[in-house]
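User: Need the bound-state model for protoporphyrin IX containing FE:
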Amino acid sequence: AEAAKKKAALQKAKVLCTDLIKSKDCQAILVRLAWHDSGTFDKANAGKPWPEAGGAIGSIRTDHEINAGPNAGLKKALTQYLKPIKDKVPEVSWADLIQLASATAVEVAGGPKIPMRYGRLDGAPKQPAPAPFGLPDALPPFGGPLKNSNDPSEHLRYVFYKYGMDDKDIVALSGAHTIGRAFKDRSGTVQEGYLGGTKYTVKGCPFLGNSETAGGRSWTKNWLKFDNSYFTDMPDHDTHCIAFPTDTILMIDPGFKPHFDLFAKDQAAFFAAYAQSHKKLSEQGSKFEPTEGITL
Ligand code: HEM
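Assistant: Bound-state model below.
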């Protein structure tokens, strides 16, 4: 009975998320929010009592995480986009709502349906990791116990292998940058802020759709649409698009390149791989009640 109630609330939340995403075209920030909740997990800590290993537990809401550098700009997604939904469906945990909003965002933006599980409990580590919480850098010097702090491949493997992921997961998940933008005022990784932009992001241009925020720099031209254009377009080096060292290395490194080339050639192969990797990411460190989870 408890699980049935949760499922009904999750279904209601999914409708509310769908309406939100369609009306505001906020798919990208919702995907990034969920990834940064998940991305604090480290399997080296998996033996510690839950939720000390971090992960998709809703702890991105803590001041410690949301006010830290890697999460710059994400607070809006919690307070303005998801809080009004949470108030309507209090039975849905924050950890679930954050992951539900992301999976729904991918779907509404044209991407694959992700075989998600719900029922996550909310938690926050008593002894949280210091920023950047094991999350990746886009530009050198890259963090982590690296032999070469200028090597984007070594950095990506350090970040994603601690989730129990492999090279295919890294390339597939990087494909999430087919949507979204970077901002000077958030990560500071690009020159374009809210008031600037490229021909694909500047105030008044058609690529913004219903987005509330203009500016920034996107990886792709149609950055509201989830497709495989991250892979098909990167080799063209469009001067209005982003290509960080952590993106371009995917075209070169022998472990990444075969996946990159396949995803460029075959969107269905990208979608299938992305759906699996996204599900894996969404369950890092999560504790489910009921333990087998709830599917919608
Ligand atoms: C592989 C290593 C990764 C690096 C170095 C990286 C880096 C970044 C940076 C610097 C930004 C710009 C943030 C800003 O200025 O607002 C960004 C945005 C974004 N990232 Fe990543 N990211 C990585 C992986 C991922 C993964 C795994 C996902 C999801 C599966 C993801 C999804 C996104 C999305 C959707 C945005 C756009 C957010 C928006 O438009 O508001 N990224 N990323």
